[in-house]
Amino acid sequence: MRSLCLIYPMSKSLIILIMGFLCLFVTVSAYSQEKGIASFYTDALKGKKMANGDRYDPDDLTCAHLTAPLGSIIKVARKDNPDHSVMVIVTDRGPYVDGRIIDLSKRAAEELGILENGVTEVVVALIKKPRV
User: Fold this and answer.
1) Alpha helices in the chain (DSSP H)
2) Residues 55-111: pLDDT tens digits?
3) What's the domain range around 77?
4) Domain count of the chain?
5) H or E element in which residue 64 lies
6) Can you list the pairs that 23-30 forms with residues at least 24 positions away whose Cβ atoms lie under 8 Å?
7) What's the CATH number where 123 sits?
8) Are the C-beta atoms of residues 114 and 56 closer than 8 Å to each other?
9) In angstroms, how far is CA 114 from the centroid of its own chain?
10) Interacting residues of 94 by C-beta distance below 8 A, sequence separation 6+
11) For the whole model, what pTM was predicted?
């Protein structure tokens, strides 16, 4: 993969988007699913270090989850419209608010259509765990 990235430089978000499309066309059984409330990171966290060591970028498709391994790919779908979903990479731990199961980057929240309300009910599915 590194050699391809040197020839064809791509952003992490583009790679996640491509992987998301592949998951739509290939039958993938999720490792686990959970239902709950999703929220999104405040802009004040831009540039702050996350649990994986990277800096938070609101334009990336990332999330915080309490138990999914860092580097995992998670599919987040709106409970009221399961066809409206986004694929994100776990880069941080959280949320630390009762009742919430995932914190999304601003871009992921925008793609799910939750910027106006700030929170929504979602179904979260662990699609791919990172290689160890």
Assistant:
1) 2-7, 12-25, 106-112
2) 999 999 999 999 999 999 999 999 999 889 999 999 999 999 999 999 999 999 999
3) 2-128
4) 1
5) strand 62-64
6) 23/75, 23/87, 23/127, 28/127, 30/75, 30/125, 30/126, 30/127
7) 2.40.40.10
8) no
9) 14
10) 64, 65, 66, 103
11) 0.76
